[in-house]
Amino acid sequence: MNNITIIGIGLIGSSLARAIRHNYSKVLINCIDVSEDNLKKSKSLSLADSYNTKINKDVEKSEFIFICTPISAYKNIFNDLSKLNLDQTIITDVGSSKVEVIKLANEFLKNKVFVPGHPIAGTEKSGPENGFKDLFKNKWFISNTCELCDETHIKKINDIWKNLGSKIETMNSKDHDSIMAITSHIPHLIAYNIVGTASELEDDIKSEVIKFSASGFRDFTRIASSDPTMWRDIMLSNKTEIISLLEKFNSDLSKILDAIKNNDGKFLFEKFKKTKEIREKIIEAGLDKN
Q1: Radius of gyration of the chain measured on its C-alpha atoms
Q2: Could you tell me the pTM of the whole model?
Q3: What angle do CA 209, 210, 212 make, to 5 degrees?
């Protein structure tokens, strides 16, 4: 790898720049971000070799283009890339939903190579100053099959992420979005909602909630402090899967509510026992660490 472009230099993009620089020391990194503040910070951190606010013809030199922006920016990015000669370039992304992204790519990136991708990594912090080179180490990277790439293209992207320390899986976009909806998207939605509920309590109670926050609520506040633009886009771009699973979640929650109202301790015990077993399996798999 000699020349790449990273579009979007926030937490993920800046971590990717650091990781690639560490593992491919001779690579030239072109950084593009609409935020001049992000570019200024990136330059002070020496994250790239060139910095631009717009996609230009210099991008045509890139072997790989990594799109690391909120999904709402994809349409304009795909449109700009569609006008360039990228015959020797593989375009990929890091978005958390895939079905709608692939539809958009099929519309704009005809005759281009696009490998949908998603590193399952991140923190509640944002901005290039909060990135770090080991963010993807021992984390999953999921690539997706689509009409704009073949097995050779997918392997090239998978190999890069493997070199960055990620574990690799390839699946179709529908399965990816279903899995992410229940393991990531809905948990974030619940976190945003419960913290929002706490914020609407009366002032005297609210202050006590903050003062006596136990670890469970603190975890919710950590998750709910994630980038609101990114999570707004994720919710809207994966809404089919999220709505379907939310309806099931609401149905299950109603059963718990009824059990509490009816003093049905047996139901509650069995429910909590089952979820405890799932937690134990996660620990056994070594997935309880950040």
Answers
A1: 21
A2: 0.86
A3: 65
